[in-house]
Amino acid sequence: MFNVCMRDCYDTCSIISELHEGKLKVRGNPSHPITQGFLCPKGALLPKWFHSKDRLKTPLIRGDLKEDFKETNWEEAINFIANRLMETIRKYGSESVLVYNYAGDRGVVNYAFPLRLFHYLNTSMLDYGICDRAGQEALKDVYGTAVGMDPEELKNQKLIVYWGINPVWTNLHGFMLAEKYGLEKWVVDVINTETAKRCGKFFQIRPNTDVVFALGVARLIIENELYNREFVREKVYGFEKFVKYLNRFDMNFVSGETGIEKERIEEFAFGYAEKKGVIHIGYGFQRSFSGGDAVRAIAILPALVGHRFGFIYDMKTIDKSYAEGEFLRTRAARKIPQMKLAEYIENGEIKFLYVYNSNPFASLPNQNRLRKAIEDNDVFVVVHDIFLTDTALYAHVVLPANTFFERYDIADSYYHRYVAFNEPVMRLYGKSNSEVTRLLAKALGIENPHLYETDEEVIKKVLEINGICFEELRKAGFVKIPLQKRTYDTPSGKIEFYSQRALNRGLSPFPEYRSRRGRGLQLLSPTWKMTITSQYHNTYNIIDPYLYMNPKDAKKRGVHENDEVEVFNENGRIRTRIKLSENIPEGVVLLYKAFWAKILGWNVNFLTTEETVEEYGNGSAYHSTWVEVRKI
Hints:
With about 625 residues, the protein is α/β, with parallel strands linked by helices. The protein has 25 helices and 29 strands. Helix 9 (about 210-225) crosses helix 13. The termini are far apart.
């Protein structure tokens, strides 16, 4: 059987699945050019997740959050939801209803089809800002798109720079692809990560200084005439203005801010220009107040050395809009910023919350405020999930979901250009998102045929729109999406070093550097190698709950290895134990993100800031969180 891992992960692995005496067995599809026939440690354990004894098996309902759940049947649960949904719309209007989904399952049908119902009902919709939004906006300012290089083109390159990404944990197949093609690998990061230790050069910058480091490198490349003159003349807009702008960033200043010696900055600039490096821009550092400007600055470097699209960030390969069905709306949607969910609940603007493919009561910031908002306000919450998550504990109705091993779907990748086929191996528990959508539509008395299309019908239509043959995909398990002619969708039609789009949004036409220092220690919260945000904690139970701190910062606070400490700020406080590490720079502490509070008792998002980067699409600012630490 062909399956595809639908987690929120770059790699989107093609899987061969088999059943042996009723037990699922998985292995990587050896034919896939990117995922190369092996699975990451998380993927190898998928059968444990699939067969978990903790999977939800029957719907749960309750009238009040203070009551215990009771088991019920599907008919009663669906009717209960439908009645409350109709009642909410009658009493408060359709915009008081919000569907909250994200990429917990990236199957095209499973992700998009439920949105049809909410579009039909003209409800509020989510404006996604939690993940890569700031970088998306920044790259559009420069290139008119966030879609970068096809990773298979790396075979023609010499150097890849991993900037703010730890692919050994989060993009293992991409890292191995670079190894396969023999590229030299460099890392720019705040933390001395597993990737940094396995690469040729490591430039450990201070947090929030990516902007000034990139601009300093750009100045050196231009001053030493190492840039591609012909490419810049033909493809770049605003080069001369950019050169003048760089005069304010002398190397003493750049070195002082970043903590990188001038000689090493020169080493980067000269080596990068000589090897015409490609940059894989990570998502983590752009989740900060400096993130949008940082991505803009970094994105200029590949163009200087002559790359048309010399970065890796996103890969929008297929049009999925038919699956979502926005065409069913009769009026424009009110968009609610994802990071401001608690605020909208407190203001009484959300009265009905339908959650699927996501665990916001683990993954959203400032959890204390969010949980109090739900407890203090009259909001009816429905959760459709595989497990009784932290979010499900705040629901009135919990519906059991199935897994991608139990249904038909397709999935593309935001890293490579392949779409993969997914077929059911066996059926255990729960229903798919599309099945529940059809049940709700029927209970609501809606007759629109678009809400009753089968998964296969939707898949075929999406593929047809994208010029992909359904039978070919089903037979091969995956196909590569043809690359269309690429242009720069900017006002000038060129790569804009002087960004007119940014100027039109009220920003500087150039990426700006601002020194950002808060009180205490800057808290970074990257993903743990055995989880994907909150997924797998409850089934694999392989986590790392320690606070990592530089020994010098620990000494100042009188804490030692394995001491129990309180980590606190204005949002909340948690207790954990200390690990001392030279991998962490002074002034920084690290906690891995989004473990289940119902298991661990806390997660880092009880501390993280819910502030957004408004000028970059209300992107999240998790890594602009500051905390203090004291020994207990």
